[in-house]
Amino acid sequence: MKVLVVGSGGREHALCWAIAKSLRCDRLYCAPGNPGIAEIAECVEVGAEDLDGLVGLARERAVDFVVVGPEAPLVAGLADRLRESGIAVFGPSAAAAEIEGSKALMKDLCAKYNVPTADYAVFDEPDAAKEYIRAHGAPIVVKASGLAAGKGVTVCHNVNEAYAAIDHMMTEQAFGASGDEVVIEQCMTGEEVSFFALVDGAAAVFFGACQDHKARDDGDKGPNTGGMGAYAPTPLLAPALERQIMDTCILPMARGLAAEGRPFRGVLFAGIMMTAAGPRVLEYNARFGDPECQVLMTRLKSDALEALYACATGKLNAIKPAWRDEAALVVVMAAKGYPGSYEKGTEIAGLDAAAALKDVTVFHAGTKRQNGALVASGGRVLGVTALGATVADAQKKAYAAVDRVRWPGGFCRRDIGWRAIARAG
Q: Which of 115, 220, 236, 255 could be bridged to 215 by S-S, CB 3.0 to 4.6 A?
């Protein structure tokens, strides 16, 4: 097959890395890609949100199969456009992707189809939102309903913080139109698990779980980010819990979306809070997580391309994903200042030395070539990933590789995987 991966981040590098290993992949393209992806695929300068350009590229190169990485083109309808052109695509329709594009819709569907989640209310007017906060008190969670690159969620420890979050999203429009509507919900406590299932209409197959680290700083302190690192497998998920989440959080939503005329075809990513009362859905995403995809693809033993293609073509029952016994862990290296303002164009060196270590792969997330040098071009820039016998072993290898990267303009958390390591004693 000729395969096109859409996107330019660490998730897309991991997808290209896994797909390139498949015997079924004859030619691999990525649009727009990045310097790391360029080592294993032909990168084409077409933006991930240029729907006309992407459909034209797929036709021009006679692409057999398209894998869409980011959420924005899915919400905009890229998968619909490709299917209309007769091209197989991994990724849901715009109608199905609205499960991520509108948190308000997602919460309403959870209520309708009895999916366990936090109590909530939806507002499109700041004063009414603040009145709800005043009545319910804190802690409380304020979320921009629309897409906000993983940054539109504020856990508010007091009422004033919640008021400020409303002003930030709705009045100051920090996330543009995505904050015109907000979801305010009960604050759930517990550990969060990223849970993935391949879904084809009403059928679903478990496709791995891991734990992400959203806070910027060690000890889960600091502002929320798109994710500073992840590890898999998670010790929280015994087989019985995995089945419970499939039965209560994945299958009811897959069937509900089909019943709503929004059949989902692609990967359904549920953020699950493991509360004292059982698993509860925090959110759904319509694509692989980043940086979760890096550890999932590193641990995947079976053919990634076969699994994604089977899901896209209605043959999900023909696959049974197989996973390595080892743990995988990714450390995200980000530009200093992220998730706030940060400098672009700082030079990065030492990646060959890092990748030369056994069981280490360095995924590019926000890099570009500039005058022959590799420089940072985004907030989250590298995903240094390692396999190990245990999470602690994988952590040790990943940080050994991080220490070989020469990038004064970057930083990372130094405690990725700490919960699993502490639990293991």
A: 220
